[in-house]
Design brief:
Elements: H1 16-32, E1 37-40, H2 43-50, E2 62-66, E3 71-76, H3 80-86, E4 92-96, H4 108-118, E5 126-128, H5 144-148, E6 153-154, H6 157-163, H7 168-191, H8 198-217, E7 231-237, E8 258-267, E9 270-271, E10 274-275, E11 277-280, H9 285-304, H10 311-326, E12 337-339, E13 346-350, E14 363-366, E15 369-372, E16 376-379, E17 381-386, E18 391-393, E19 405-406
Helix pairs in contact: 7-8, 9-10
Length: 408
Protein backbone atom coordinates (compact mmCIF):
# COMPACT_ATOMS: atom_id res chain seq x y z
CA UNK A 1 0.00 0.00 0.00
CA UNK A 2 2.69 2.47 0.98
CA UNK A 3 6.43 2.90 0.94
CA UNK A 4 8.14 1.94 4.18
CA UNK A 5 8.99 5.18 5.97
CA UNK A 6 10.94 3.78 8.93
CA UNK A 7 14.42 2.30 8.59
CA UNK A 8 15.62 -0.47 10.86
CA UNK A 9 17.28 2.12 13.08
CA UNK A 10 14.43 4.66 13.28
CA UNK A 11 12.44 5.23 16.44
CA UNK A 12 8.89 4.08 15.78
CA UNK A 13 6.99 7.32 16.24
CA UNK A 14 5.67 10.26 14.25
CA UNK A 15 8.39 12.86 13.67
CA UNK A 16 8.39 16.58 14.39
CA UNK A 17 8.03 17.48 10.69
CA UNK A 18 4.74 15.59 10.39
CA UNK A 19 3.35 17.26 13.51
CA UNK A 20 4.31 20.64 12.03
CA UNK A 21 2.53 19.79 8.77
CA UNK A 22 -0.60 18.83 10.73
CA UNK A 23 -0.63 22.18 12.49
CA UNK A 24 -0.12 23.98 9.18
CA UNK A 25 -3.20 22.22 7.81
CA UNK A 26 -5.15 23.57 10.78
CA UNK A 27 -3.80 27.09 10.22
CA UNK A 28 -5.06 26.94 6.62
CA UNK A 29 -8.40 25.57 7.76
CA UNK A 30 -8.83 28.40 10.25
CA UNK A 31 -8.07 30.99 7.60
CA UNK A 32 -10.51 29.38 5.15
CA UNK A 33 -13.30 29.36 7.73
CA UNK A 34 -12.47 32.81 9.08
CA UNK A 35 -11.78 31.47 12.57
CA UNK A 36 -9.25 33.43 14.60
CA UNK A 37 -8.28 30.72 17.10
CA UNK A 38 -8.92 27.08 17.92
CA UNK A 39 -8.78 25.61 21.43
CA UNK A 40 -8.19 21.86 21.49
CA UNK A 41 -9.03 20.04 24.74
CA UNK A 42 -9.31 16.36 23.73
CA UNK A 43 -6.14 14.54 24.84
CA UNK A 44 -5.87 12.50 21.64
CA UNK A 45 -6.37 15.60 19.49
CA UNK A 46 -3.72 17.46 21.49
CA UNK A 47 -1.32 14.56 20.90
CA UNK A 48 -2.22 14.39 17.20
CA UNK A 49 -1.31 18.05 16.66
CA UNK A 50 1.64 18.45 19.01
CA UNK A 51 3.22 15.08 19.79
CA UNK A 52 2.49 15.70 23.48
CA UNK A 53 1.18 12.43 24.92
CA UNK A 54 0.03 12.59 28.53
CA UNK A 55 -2.15 10.88 31.09
CA UNK A 56 -5.42 12.89 31.25
CA UNK A 57 -6.57 13.77 34.74
CA UNK A 58 -8.78 16.39 36.38
CA UNK A 59 -6.26 19.05 35.33
CA UNK A 60 -7.33 20.82 32.09
CA UNK A 61 -4.86 20.92 29.22
CA UNK A 62 -5.52 22.80 25.98
CA UNK A 63 -3.56 23.45 22.80
CA UNK A 64 -4.32 26.76 21.08
CA UNK A 65 -3.69 27.40 17.40
CA UNK A 66 -4.36 30.80 15.83
CA UNK A 67 -5.08 31.74 12.23
CA UNK A 68 -1.86 33.73 12.07
CA UNK A 69 0.22 30.65 12.95
CA UNK A 70 0.73 30.96 16.69
CA UNK A 71 0.93 27.91 18.93
CA UNK A 72 0.15 28.18 22.64
CA UNK A 73 -0.93 25.92 25.49
CA UNK A 74 -2.75 25.85 28.80
CA UNK A 75 -0.83 23.52 31.13
CA UNK A 76 -0.80 22.55 34.81
CA UNK A 77 2.57 23.11 36.39
CA UNK A 78 3.14 19.37 36.86
CA UNK A 79 3.01 18.84 33.06
CA UNK A 80 5.20 21.78 32.00
CA UNK A 81 8.51 19.92 31.80
CA UNK A 82 6.73 16.95 30.22
CA UNK A 83 5.36 19.18 27.44
CA UNK A 84 8.77 20.78 26.93
CA UNK A 85 10.24 17.29 26.47
CA UNK A 86 7.73 16.22 23.79
CA UNK A 87 5.90 19.18 22.32
CA UNK A 88 6.74 22.01 19.90
CA UNK A 89 8.15 25.39 20.86
CA UNK A 90 5.33 27.61 22.09
CA UNK A 91 4.70 31.24 21.27
CA UNK A 92 2.95 31.69 24.63
CA UNK A 93 1.58 29.59 27.46
CA UNK A 94 -0.57 29.77 30.57
CA UNK A 95 0.77 27.69 33.44
CA UNK A 96 -1.55 27.25 36.40
CA UNK A 97 -0.45 25.84 39.78
CA UNK A 98 -3.01 23.07 40.32
CA UNK A 99 -6.67 22.11 40.02
CA UNK A 100 -9.02 23.38 41.36
CA UNK A 101 -6.72 26.30 42.06
CA UNK A 102 -3.74 25.28 44.14
CA UNK A 103 -4.07 28.39 46.28
CA UNK A 104 -4.38 30.79 43.35
CA UNK A 105 -8.07 31.31 43.95
CA UNK A 106 -8.63 30.98 40.21
CA UNK A 107 -10.08 28.19 38.10
CA UNK A 108 -7.66 26.97 35.39
CA UNK A 109 -9.96 28.12 32.58
CA UNK A 110 -9.50 31.69 33.80
CA UNK A 111 -5.79 31.28 32.99
CA UNK A 112 -6.86 30.20 29.51
CA UNK A 113 -8.96 33.35 29.14
CA UNK A 114 -5.90 35.47 29.99
CA UNK A 115 -3.84 33.55 27.41
CA UNK A 116 -6.41 34.12 24.66
CA UNK A 117 -6.41 37.81 25.55
CA UNK A 118 -2.62 38.02 25.23
CA UNK A 119 -2.86 36.26 21.85
CA UNK A 120 -5.21 39.01 20.70
CA UNK A 121 -8.15 36.72 19.90
CA UNK A 122 -10.51 37.40 22.79
CA UNK A 123 -13.74 38.81 21.39
CA UNK A 124 -12.93 37.44 17.94
CA UNK A 125 -14.09 34.17 16.35
CA UNK A 126 -13.00 31.27 18.55
CA UNK A 127 -13.62 27.57 17.90
CA UNK A 128 -12.94 24.48 19.99
CA UNK A 129 -13.21 20.73 19.64
CA UNK A 130 -15.52 20.80 22.70
CA UNK A 131 -16.86 23.76 24.66
CA UNK A 132 -14.58 23.31 27.64
CA UNK A 133 -12.63 20.54 29.31
CA UNK A 134 -14.30 17.14 29.64
CA UNK A 135 -15.51 16.08 33.07
CA UNK A 136 -13.14 13.36 34.21
CA UNK A 137 -11.69 12.34 37.56
CA UNK A 138 -13.84 14.77 39.53
CA UNK A 139 -13.21 17.83 37.36
CA UNK A 140 -15.85 20.54 37.60
CA UNK A 141 -15.67 23.56 35.39
CA UNK A 142 -17.67 25.98 33.29
CA UNK A 143 -18.06 25.91 29.53
CA UNK A 144 -15.38 27.79 27.63
CA UNK A 145 -18.05 30.04 26.15
CA UNK A 146 -19.19 30.99 29.66
CA UNK A 147 -15.64 31.83 30.75
CA UNK A 148 -15.01 33.92 27.64
CA UNK A 149 -18.52 35.46 27.70
CA UNK A 150 -18.85 34.91 23.96
CA UNK A 151 -19.99 32.16 21.60
CA UNK A 152 -17.57 29.32 20.83
CA UNK A 153 -17.88 27.22 17.67
CA UNK A 154 -17.63 23.72 19.17
CA UNK A 155 -16.98 21.05 16.54
CA UNK A 156 -14.95 17.85 17.00
CA UNK A 157 -14.85 17.43 13.21
CA UNK A 158 -12.42 20.34 12.86
CA UNK A 159 -9.60 17.99 13.91
CA UNK A 160 -11.14 14.55 13.58
CA UNK A 161 -11.84 14.98 9.86
CA UNK A 162 -8.10 15.57 9.38
CA UNK A 163 -7.39 12.30 11.22
CA UNK A 164 -9.50 10.10 8.92
CA UNK A 165 -6.92 9.62 6.14
CA UNK A 166 -3.67 8.24 7.50
CA UNK A 167 -0.21 9.26 6.31
CA UNK A 168 2.41 6.79 5.16
CA UNK A 169 4.06 7.02 8.58
CA UNK A 170 0.80 6.33 10.39
CA UNK A 171 0.07 3.30 8.21
CA UNK A 172 3.60 1.99 8.80
CA UNK A 173 3.12 2.25 12.57
CA UNK A 174 -0.26 0.52 12.38
CA UNK A 175 1.22 -2.22 10.20
CA UNK A 176 3.85 -2.85 12.87
CA UNK A 177 1.13 -2.78 15.55
CA UNK A 178 -0.76 -5.45 13.59
CA UNK A 179 2.33 -7.63 13.48
CA UNK A 180 2.53 -7.62 17.26
CA UNK A 181 -1.20 -8.09 17.70
CA UNK A 182 -0.93 -11.18 15.49
CA UNK A 183 2.02 -12.41 17.55
CA UNK A 184 0.19 -11.92 20.85
CA UNK A 185 -2.78 -13.85 19.48
CA UNK A 186 -0.56 -16.73 18.36
CA UNK A 187 1.01 -16.98 21.81
CA UNK A 188 -2.42 -16.96 23.41
CA UNK A 189 -3.91 -19.55 21.06
CA UNK A 190 -0.93 -21.85 21.59
CA UNK A 191 -1.36 -21.56 25.38
CA UNK A 192 -5.06 -22.40 25.63
CA UNK A 193 -5.81 -25.82 27.08
CA UNK A 194 -8.89 -27.47 28.52
CA UNK A 195 -8.88 -26.28 32.12
CA UNK A 196 -7.14 -22.97 31.35
CA UNK A 197 -8.28 -19.80 33.14
CA UNK A 198 -9.10 -17.15 30.54
CA UNK A 199 -7.66 -14.28 32.60
CA UNK A 200 -4.36 -16.01 33.26
CA UNK A 201 -3.91 -17.12 29.65
CA UNK A 202 -4.86 -13.66 28.35
CA UNK A 203 -2.50 -11.74 30.59
CA UNK A 204 0.29 -14.29 30.28
CA UNK A 205 0.24 -14.10 26.49
CA UNK A 206 0.13 -10.29 26.59
CA UNK A 207 3.14 -10.14 28.87
CA UNK A 208 5.16 -12.62 26.80
CA UNK A 209 4.31 -10.81 23.56
CA UNK A 210 5.42 -7.54 25.15
CA UNK A 211 8.70 -9.14 26.23
CA UNK A 212 9.23 -10.33 22.65
CA UNK A 213 8.40 -6.90 21.22
CA UNK A 214 10.82 -5.08 23.50
CA UNK A 215 13.54 -7.64 22.87
CA UNK A 216 13.23 -7.23 19.10
CA UNK A 217 12.59 -3.49 18.84
CA UNK A 218 14.68 -2.28 21.75
CA UNK A 219 15.12 1.49 21.78
CA UNK A 220 13.12 1.86 18.57
CA UNK A 221 9.95 1.29 20.60
CA UNK A 222 8.68 4.52 22.16
CA UNK A 223 5.93 4.09 24.78
CA UNK A 224 3.19 6.72 24.57
CA UNK A 225 1.18 5.90 27.71
CA UNK A 226 1.53 5.20 31.43
CA UNK A 227 -0.81 2.20 31.34
CA UNK A 228 -1.34 -0.90 29.24
CA UNK A 229 1.08 -3.10 27.35
CA UNK A 230 2.47 -2.73 23.81
CA UNK A 231 1.07 -6.14 22.79
CA UNK A 232 -2.17 -7.60 24.10
CA UNK A 233 -4.46 -10.60 23.69
CA UNK A 234 -7.60 -11.80 25.45
CA UNK A 235 -10.61 -14.05 25.01
CA UNK A 236 -14.02 -14.78 26.46
CA UNK A 237 -15.76 -18.13 26.20
CA UNK A 238 -18.99 -20.05 25.97
CA UNK A 239 -22.42 -18.43 25.94
CA UNK A 240 -20.77 -15.24 27.23
CA UNK A 241 -19.56 -14.66 23.66
CA UNK A 242 -23.19 -13.99 22.63
CA UNK A 243 -22.64 -10.59 24.28
CA UNK A 244 -20.58 -8.58 21.75
CA UNK A 245 -18.63 -6.95 24.60
CA UNK A 246 -18.89 -9.68 27.21
CA UNK A 247 -16.70 -9.28 30.29
CA UNK A 248 -14.24 -11.86 31.55
CA UNK A 249 -15.65 -14.69 33.63
CA UNK A 250 -14.00 -16.90 36.19
CA UNK A 251 -13.78 -20.61 35.55
CA UNK A 252 -11.97 -22.97 33.24
CA UNK A 253 -12.03 -23.53 29.49
CA UNK A 254 -14.02 -26.62 28.59
CA UNK A 255 -14.51 -28.87 25.58
CA UNK A 256 -17.11 -27.37 23.24
CA UNK A 257 -16.50 -23.78 24.35
CA UNK A 258 -16.70 -21.15 21.66
CA UNK A 259 -14.00 -18.53 22.14
CA UNK A 260 -14.12 -14.97 20.81
CA UNK A 261 -10.70 -13.37 21.01
CA UNK A 262 -9.19 -9.92 20.76
CA UNK A 263 -5.58 -8.92 20.17
CA UNK A 264 -3.82 -5.68 19.34
CA UNK A 265 -0.53 -3.89 19.33
CA UNK A 266 0.26 -0.26 20.12
CA UNK A 267 3.22 1.28 18.27
CA UNK A 268 3.98 5.01 18.30
CA UNK A 269 0.58 5.51 19.93
CA UNK A 270 -1.22 3.81 17.01
CA UNK A 271 -3.39 0.75 17.53
CA UNK A 272 -4.40 -2.34 15.57
CA UNK A 273 -7.32 -4.74 15.90
CA UNK A 274 -7.57 -8.51 15.46
CA UNK A 275 -10.46 -10.71 16.61
CA UNK A 276 -11.17 -14.36 15.90
CA UNK A 277 -13.87 -16.91 16.66
CA UNK A 278 -12.44 -20.25 17.83
CA UNK A 279 -13.71 -23.58 19.16
CA UNK A 280 -12.35 -25.99 21.76
CA UNK A 281 -12.57 -29.53 20.39
CA UNK A 282 -14.24 -30.71 17.20
CA UNK A 283 -16.75 -28.16 15.83
CA UNK A 284 -20.27 -29.51 15.49
CA UNK A 285 -22.62 -28.75 12.60
CA UNK A 286 -24.31 -25.84 14.39
CA UNK A 287 -20.99 -24.11 15.06
CA UNK A 288 -19.80 -24.70 11.50
CA UNK A 289 -22.99 -23.19 10.08
CA UNK A 290 -22.69 -19.94 11.99
CA UNK A 291 -18.93 -19.73 11.55
CA UNK A 292 -19.24 -20.06 7.77
CA UNK A 293 -21.99 -17.44 7.70
CA UNK A 294 -19.88 -14.98 9.68
CA UNK A 295 -16.82 -15.59 7.51
CA UNK A 296 -18.87 -15.00 4.34
CA UNK A 297 -20.31 -11.77 5.75
CA UNK A 298 -16.83 -10.48 6.55
CA UNK A 299 -15.73 -11.26 3.00
CA UNK A 300 -18.67 -9.22 1.68
CA UNK A 301 -17.36 -6.36 3.83
CA UNK A 302 -13.86 -6.73 2.38
CA UNK A 303 -15.21 -6.78 -1.18
CA UNK A 304 -17.43 -3.74 -0.59
CA UNK A 305 -14.61 -1.44 0.55
CA UNK A 306 -13.16 0.80 -2.13
CA UNK A 307 -12.60 4.53 -2.67
CA UNK A 308 -15.58 6.59 -3.77
CA UNK A 309 -18.18 4.50 -1.99
CA UNK A 310 -19.72 5.64 1.28
CA UNK A 311 -19.49 3.90 4.63
CA UNK A 312 -23.27 3.45 4.51
CA UNK A 313 -23.05 1.65 1.15
CA UNK A 314 -20.54 -0.82 2.58
CA UNK A 315 -22.78 -1.51 5.56
CA UNK A 316 -25.79 -1.85 3.27
CA UNK A 317 -24.01 -4.55 1.24
CA UNK A 318 -23.16 -6.51 4.38
CA UNK A 319 -26.61 -6.19 5.95
CA UNK A 320 -28.33 -7.14 2.69
CA UNK A 321 -26.21 -10.28 2.46
CA UNK A 322 -26.94 -11.24 6.07
CA UNK A 323 -30.66 -10.63 5.59
CA UNK A 324 -31.28 -11.97 2.09
CA UNK A 325 -28.62 -14.66 1.65
CA UNK A 326 -28.15 -15.89 5.21
CA UNK A 327 -31.57 -15.13 6.71
CA UNK A 328 -29.83 -14.08 9.94
CA UNK A 329 -30.63 -10.37 10.25
CA UNK A 330 -32.05 -10.97 13.73
CA UNK A 331 -28.58 -12.06 14.93
CA UNK A 332 -26.91 -8.72 14.12
CA UNK A 333 -26.07 -6.49 17.11
CA UNK A 334 -23.75 -3.84 15.66
CA UNK A 335 -22.43 -2.23 12.51
CA UNK A 336 -19.69 -3.71 10.34
CA UNK A 337 -16.74 -1.64 11.53
CA UNK A 338 -15.10 1.62 12.41
CA UNK A 339 -12.07 3.73 11.72
CA UNK A 340 -9.18 3.75 14.15
CA UNK A 341 -5.64 4.94 14.63
CA UNK A 342 -4.65 6.71 17.83
CA UNK A 343 -7.88 5.43 19.39
CA UNK A 344 -9.50 2.02 19.30
CA UNK A 345 -12.62 3.50 17.71
CA UNK A 346 -12.47 6.58 15.48
CA UNK A 347 -14.70 8.30 12.97
CA UNK A 348 -15.95 7.23 10.42
CA UNK A 349 -18.12 4.14 10.98
CA UNK A 350 -19.26 1.43 8.57
CA UNK A 351 -22.86 2.16 9.50
CA UNK A 352 -26.12 2.73 7.63
CA UNK A 353 -26.23 6.34 8.83
CA UNK A 354 -22.61 7.32 8.16
CA UNK A 355 -22.35 8.75 4.64
CA UNK A 356 -18.63 9.57 4.76
CA UNK A 357 -16.96 8.96 1.39
CA UNK A 358 -14.20 6.35 1.63
CA UNK A 359 -10.72 7.49 0.56
CA UNK A 360 -7.34 5.80 0.08
CA UNK A 361 -5.39 5.82 3.33
CA UNK A 362 -8.38 5.33 5.61
CA UNK A 363 -8.00 2.46 8.07
CA UNK A 364 -10.99 0.40 9.24
CA UNK A 365 -11.89 -2.63 11.24
CA UNK A 366 -14.12 -5.08 9.34
CA UNK A 367 -16.07 -7.10 11.90
CA UNK A 368 -19.67 -8.03 11.11
CA UNK A 369 -20.88 -10.28 13.92
CA UNK A 370 -23.64 -12.83 14.43
CA UNK A 371 -24.85 -13.44 17.99
CA UNK A 372 -26.91 -16.51 18.84
CA UNK A 373 -28.61 -16.10 22.25
CA UNK A 374 -27.66 -18.71 24.86
CA UNK A 375 -25.18 -20.28 22.41
CA UNK A 376 -22.34 -18.11 21.15
CA UNK A 377 -21.13 -15.08 19.25
CA UNK A 378 -19.32 -15.29 15.92
CA UNK A 379 -17.01 -12.42 14.94
CA UNK A 380 -13.72 -11.99 13.13
CA UNK A 381 -12.20 -8.52 13.03
CA UNK A 382 -9.35 -7.42 10.79
CA UNK A 383 -7.47 -4.17 10.36
CA UNK A 384 -7.59 -3.03 6.74
CA UNK A 385 -6.26 0.00 4.86
CA UNK A 386 -8.03 1.46 1.83
CA UNK A 387 -5.94 1.34 -1.35
CA UNK A 388 -6.48 3.05 -4.70
CA UNK A 389 -8.69 0.18 -5.88
CA UNK A 390 -9.96 -1.63 -2.79
CA UNK A 391 -8.50 -2.63 0.54
CA UNK A 392 -5.53 -4.49 1.98
CA UNK A 393 -5.47 -6.50 5.20
CA UNK A 394 -2.84 -5.40 7.71
CA UNK A 395 -3.72 -8.08 10.28
CA UNK A 396 -2.64 -11.32 8.66
CA UNK A 397 -3.76 -13.98 11.15
CA UNK A 398 -5.58 -16.93 9.57
CA UNK A 399 -9.35 -16.57 9.22
CA UNK A 400 -9.99 -20.25 8.45
CA UNK A 401 -11.72 -22.65 10.82
CA UNK A 402 -9.12 -25.39 10.50
CA UNK A 403 -6.54 -23.01 11.99
CA UNK A 404 -8.78 -21.88 14.85
CA UNK A 405 -9.54 -25.15 16.60
CA UNK A 406 -8.09 -25.71 20.08
CA UNK A 407 -7.46 -29.36 20.91
CA UNK A 408 -10.10 -30.75 23.27
Amino acid sequence: MTDIVFSESDRLEIGADEYRLRRERVFRLLAEREIDALCVFGPTRVAYLSGFFFSPTERPIALILTANGQVAALLPNLELSHFQQQGPKLDDSAIYPEYPGGGSGRHPLLFLRDLLSRLGVLGKVIAADVDGYEHRWGYRGPALSAVLEQPVQADVALIDDLRMVKSAAEIALMTEACRWGDHAHRLMQDSIRVGSEELLISHGASLQATRDLLAELGGRYVPKAREGLPANAMFIRGANTAHPHGLHESGAVGVGDVLVTGAYGVVGGYESELERTMIVGEPNAEFQRYFAAMLAAQQVGFDALRPGRTCAEVESDVRRFIRDELGMDDLVRHHTGHGFGLEGHEHPFLDLDDHTVIEPGMVFSVEPGLYVPEFAGFRHSDTVVITESGMERLSLYSRELDDLVVAG
